[in-house]
Amino acid sequence: MSRSLRIGTRGSALALWQARHVKTLVRALPGSPPVELVHIKTEGDVRTEVPLWALRGRSFFTKEIDRALLAGEVDIAVHSLKDVATVLEPGTELAAVLTREDPRDALLTRSGAPLAALPPGVRIGTSSLRRRAFLARARPDAQLLELRGNVPTRIERLVRGDYDAIVLAAAGLKRLALEQHISELLPPEQLPPAVSQGAIAVCARADDRDTWHWLAPLDDAPARLATTAERALLKRIEGGCQVPLGALAQVHGDVLELLAGVCSLDGTQLLAHRAWAPAELKSAAPLGEQVAEELLARGAAKLIAHERSSRAVPEEP
Predict the structure, then answer these.
(1) Tell me, what's the pLDDT at 57?
(2) Does the annotation count 83 as an active-site position?
């Protein structure tokens, strides 16, 4: 294969880290072709003045890149898997899920104190309804404030005093060598992470066998297994980044464990369930669907519908 492989990516520091990581992995394969990065702006990058939960539709950080992929303008789309819709764009496929980084959420505080030790009325910034809901449950006294921007910008706003604390994905902080800012890694039982958090998705056109040849070796079996279960759960519940749903699947030897929770935005109602299955790809999606059915049977759909119809967010400081 003589032509270059073109990777479509957003221009943020974290997105570029992910794209360069894929480039490094491909270039390490014997006989690999040249690889170049193509920067693409997405709706999520442009509309930074609006909370994500207030935007109509989904795939705010992926659809423009996927369109470029389908148009043949790039050969590979690299995304944070948590941003990828559970139903992919027709004509594209998930060619590889890379080895997963720490999936947990991280608390960053100006004082260095953990969540339980923060003072009453603490101002916590986050752009996620999921984080808002579970934080409201853990700290009902906290002021939960909207926070947008890339990872370095969010940390800068914390440092200058706009917030007392913020919550970010541990994976992004570690990939950008910013883990020194972490005050506490929040346990999944207290704050279950976003579906597929910490995993990188590498997508290609379904019929582009030449590109698939270079991407297939990048697929990580445990990451594929865990995220398949989580995404099947999300698909069945029909959630998205605007829904207070968290989940984490983990492989323990020959067992796949899935923990999931749906929480009301005020933190007063929590539906949680944990289940296990053999650590085999054929068992992953059924496990996710099983946990989803249990949550739905206990009222998850009603709780989500209520939250979608009654969103209100305090102004930023």
Answers:
(1) 44
(2) yes
CATH number of 105-186: 3.40.190.10
Which has the minimum average pLDDT: 16-20, 33-37, 56-60, 166-170?
56-60
Q: Where are the domains of the chain?
A: 5-100+199-219, 105-186, 234-309
Do 41 and 64 touch, CB atoms closer than 8 A?
Answer: yes
Distance, in Å, from the CA atom of 120 to the CA atom of 79, rounded to the nearest integer, reads 37
Q: Name the pTM for this structure.
A: 0.90
Of residues 83, 105, 164, 208, which has the active-site annotation? 83
Token pair for 6: 């073109």
What does the pLDDT read at residue 305? 79
Q: Are 38 and 109 in contact (CB under 8 A)?
A: no
- Which class in CATH covers the domain with range 5-100+199-219? alpha beta
Fold of 234-309: Double Stranded RNA Binding Domain (3.30.160)
Residue for token digits 């720490």? 102
**Domains 105-186 and 234-309 alike in fold:** no
The tens digit of pLDDT for each residue in 236-283 reads 997 554 678 999 999 999 999 999 999 999 999 999 999 999 999 999
* Per-residue burial over 67-83, b = 16 or more CB atoms within 10 Å of its CB, e = otherwise: bbbbeeebbbbbbbbbb
